[in-house]
Amino acid sequence: MCYLSGMPDEDDLCIGPSEDHGDAVTAVAVSPDGRIGATGARSGEIRLWDLRHGLLTAYVGGLQGGPVESAAFIGDARQPRLLTTGPSASLWMVTAEALEWRQFPWDGGRLLTSSDREAVLRQCGDLRWLGVFGSLYGSIKSESPMALGRTASGLIVVSSDEGLIRAWRRPAGETYGDAGLVWAFGGDAADQRLTRCCDGWRLVVSPRRGRVVVLDSESGAVVTAFVPPARPTAIAAHPDRPLVVLGGRDGSLSWWDARSAHCLGRVQAHGGRVRALALATDTDLVMSVSQDGTAALWRLHGRGPAGRFVPPTSSGPRELTHVAGTPDGRCWLVGGRGGQVHVLHWSGHAGLVPQRVGRPSWVMDGGDVETLLDDVRHHWDDGPASVAAVRELASGDLDEAWHGSAVDALTDLIVNGADPATREAAVIALAEIDQGKATTALYQMFGRHDGHGSAGRLLAYFTGEDESTTEELVASLPGIGDFLGVLTSAALGERGAAAVPAVHAALRAFPFPTREDADHWFRDESTKYRLMYALRQAGAAAAPATPTLLAVLEDDEIYRDTRHQAKVTLQAIGLPETADTIAAEVRRRADLVVHHEDGQDDDTEGCSLLLEVLLGMPPAALVASREVGPALEAVRRRLGDGIRTYEDNGEVHEYTVFEIRLADCIDEEIAEQIKR
Q: Which PROSITE patterns does this one have (predicted)?
């Protein structure tokens, strides 16, 4: 193989004594023959181990640029290659004499399978896949990927953090192109980092809220579902059999037939949550490691462990978080939150024998942040548990290494949490860490959850004032920042019809069209945006503001985001009477002929924005409107079939006028609503 880069600098590569990592282990991998092990750390450091003797053979620091997310040995076992991913992806060739390195110019990813010659890597938020021995040849549009798998027919299954699972088929051949979406499965949101494929990649196992769902990997259809005895915190899925092992928050292990949903057995494995599982795929053995610092080897139908490892008591964190082993189950590599690395050997007569016992070398400030984040991610339906975890997380000093993870976990809870008190606690915690991210999360939360009074309670918490009048809140809008601005607007919206007159009057007080003033223009636009956001939150109660909102929509001098807010506010009002008003204006403009000095006439007088508003309104309002039908007829009467032509390099091309396309889409919405 031709490497793009040679060896790392001597300052980065060290061959030295048997030492543990300086911080948390984040990835482990074992070569199929059990000779070489690899561990990655939160700092980006990578270490290689001689597993036969439990010795450190090499360590490399500073190349990942951030935490190592995953590690796996790939390709020919006679010539081991290690793929590591994180902020960047690297391929390592490991020999007795040297460690050769090739870095990929992409920003991280996940491995498909440990025996595959392919990997999926991220680039600019999209997923890209490539042959490890070849060039980039495809991309998948997917946000926040959490787990990946490849089906028997070659579909690539991607699960995302909002609970959505999609299956994609890549373009034929080696030519670069976008993948095609084959199926998608949504429903209740749940952390998808535990999604796995099993049974020859024919089944997708996806933990959801309160249950585990099994999908057919080719169609996305639900095959079965089952309820585990405790919330899963770890999973292992057999690549060739419909076998799934779940580790629970209560320290239990349970074995399941993924096709029939039959429980094959359950044991109380540990005194703390199970943090990781690994299957020896050539046997019926599975290794579990736990928050209590112990590791245990289990047989599928055994009532007790085939072997157990309890490290000697030492200072610092003892939690074990990662494990990998050989297919025959004879060698296991275990990593811990304190940076400790253990090498364990197993045989039928000797049991589980430690070849190397590591010692924690790193103590995290502020308590067990990773465990708290795990609770935040998973207790969306358990208000008190989530609130307790969030408050403990916010009360400690958050290490910079955990900043991004904490922001993501709190944002997920704010957007997806089922309990208002839990969401509000998460907003308070996130605002302390990153107020800008908290502002974005608030918009998402109010878009999904309303009517619970959260905005008023949060505003009172952050301002210390809980008796403000509507007029005082409206008057405060021009002088506050974005975070308090969204809270104040939403609080006004929660007051409904009672607040609409004051909010509407404040919006009407602005001149239309807008006068651009260098000193006040942006402040005024922000204030208009917030006033309309309040009206939007009020919904149908804001109907009296419809004429003013139409004036905002048609103001060419207004900022584009302000105009967009007018559009979505009209759609949020969503009444047939609102549709009537907008459609009547569409018809008036469609019948209006505008003459120009050059003798040309406009096809329409600005109907497209109004048609876009109609298209986004509730279909029931469109059906009940008396004016929408005549308005669409007037547009078609004016534009005919809407087919126009243009010439480009001597060739004549056809296109459909945008207003006609919008009219057709509105008719389709109406027809679908009538069918229902």
A: WD_REPEATS_2, WD_REPEATS_REGION
